[in-house]
């Protein structure tokens, strides 16, 4: 998918979004009403970020090898045009991972890849482009944040795994164990906050490679993600309502309120970007979020993940949904 024209860097997007108050929701889990400490995580409302690591993309980042051959050719022949154009449809976040955690995000969507021409063990993140940021460094940053917030719990979704061999999976899982250690909650029944605090555990790690999950009890199966693949908020909401009518998954799951462009839309809107598309849809999507309720019911929400965290009240709106559980 290749738009032409207009340039928009992640740094310019970053300047145009309001900065969240420092540590505003950094400890929201421990600040919940004590009655909510005994509710399993999959019955709480939890804010998440879609394609968490795209804030680190820039115009020098290489195009993913899974993109079309035409796009890769254009990137080699006309990089000054191609890279900025791809960038503005690749970036979904402008806050760093630490800033997202400070803002209250507790589900991180980590799409991991090994570049074909990269060094043997260096793993990167990917969304149309490869990040310069390394996976091991980011996991360490998350671990350090958790050490400073011992009663906060995160759900890390490791997925995509572009270019990953089984040896690289084993390498990554070893890194995960070394970095998080006893913070990892082994798979089993979805725990409550009180249970996790008693065990000193802070990380549920979802891993979308069944072979690796079968070998390591520290890994949880991939978290289901309701992805509507829609460019219009109204159609995305129709999709999400349809999924709710089918009944929620048994465990942790994600409802994505992220809009998705298609080639037809890109070609018809050459001056647009994913950021502009998202910000325009936030009022309608935000209203839908505020209508949701967490809990065990078949139509109840759990994790709700969005793009451009910090652009509105999304994170606080999701956290506030947990107050509805006190009325039950």
TrEMBL record:
Matches recorded under SUPFAM superfamilies: PLC-like phosphodiesterases (SSF51695)
Classification via PROSITE patterns: PIPLC_X_DOMAIN (PS50007)
Transmembrane segments: none
InterPro entries: PI-PLC_domain (IPR051057), PLC-like_Pdiesterase_TIM-brl (IPR017946), PLCXD1/2/3 (IPR042158), PLipase_C_PInositol-sp_X_dom (IPR000909)
Positions of the UniProt region annotated as Disordered: 1-20
Domain Phosphatidylinositol-specific phospholipase C X per the UniProt entry, residue ranges: 38-208
Highest rank taxon of the organism: Eukaryota
Cited Pfam families: PI-PLC_X (PF26146)
GO biological process: lipid metabolic process
One of the record's GO molecular function terms: phosphoric diester hydrolase activity
This protein's name: PI-PLC X domain-containing protein 1
């Amino acid at each position: 998918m290749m738009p032409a024209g207009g340039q928009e860097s992640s740094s310019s997007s970053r300047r145009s979004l309001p900065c969240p108050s420092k540590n505003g929701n950094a400890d929201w889990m421990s600040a919940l009403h004590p009655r909510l400490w005994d509710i399993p995580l999959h019955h709480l409302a939890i804010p998440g970020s879609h394609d968490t690591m795209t804030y680190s993309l820039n115009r020098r980042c290489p195009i993913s090898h899974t993109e079309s051959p035409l796009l890769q050719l254009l990137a080699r022949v006309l990089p000054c045009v191609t890279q900025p154009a791809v960038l503005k449809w690749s970036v979904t976040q402008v806050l760093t991972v630490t800033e997202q955690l400070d803002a209250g995000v507790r589900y991180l969507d980590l799409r991991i890849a090994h570049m074909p021409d990269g060094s043997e063990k260096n793993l990167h993140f990917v969304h149309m482009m490869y990040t310069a940021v390394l996976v091991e460094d980011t996991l360490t940053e998350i671990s350090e944040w958790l050490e400073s917030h011992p009663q906060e719990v995160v759900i890390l979704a490791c997925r995509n795994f572009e270019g990953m061999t089984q040896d690289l999976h084993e390498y990554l899982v070893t890194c995960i164990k070394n970095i998080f250690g006893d913070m990892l909650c082994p798979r089993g029944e979805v725990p409550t906050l009180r249970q996790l605090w008693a065990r000193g555990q802070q990380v549920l790690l979802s891993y979308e490679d069944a072979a690796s999950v079968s070998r390591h009890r520290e890994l949880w199966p991939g978290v289901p993600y309701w992805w509507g693949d829609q460019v219009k908020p109204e159609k995305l909401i129709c999709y999400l309502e349809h999924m709710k009518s089918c009944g929620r998954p048994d465990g942790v799951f994600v409802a994505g309120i992220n809009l998705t462009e298609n080639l037809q839309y890109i070609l018809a809107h050459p001056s647009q970007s994913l950021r502009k598309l998202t910000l325009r849809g936030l009022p309608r999507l935000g209203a839908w979020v505020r209508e949701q309720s967490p809990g065990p019911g078949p139509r109840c929400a759990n994790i709700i993940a969005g793009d451009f965290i910090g652009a509105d009240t999304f994170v606080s709106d999701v956290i506030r949904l947990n107050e509805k559980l006190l009325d039950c």
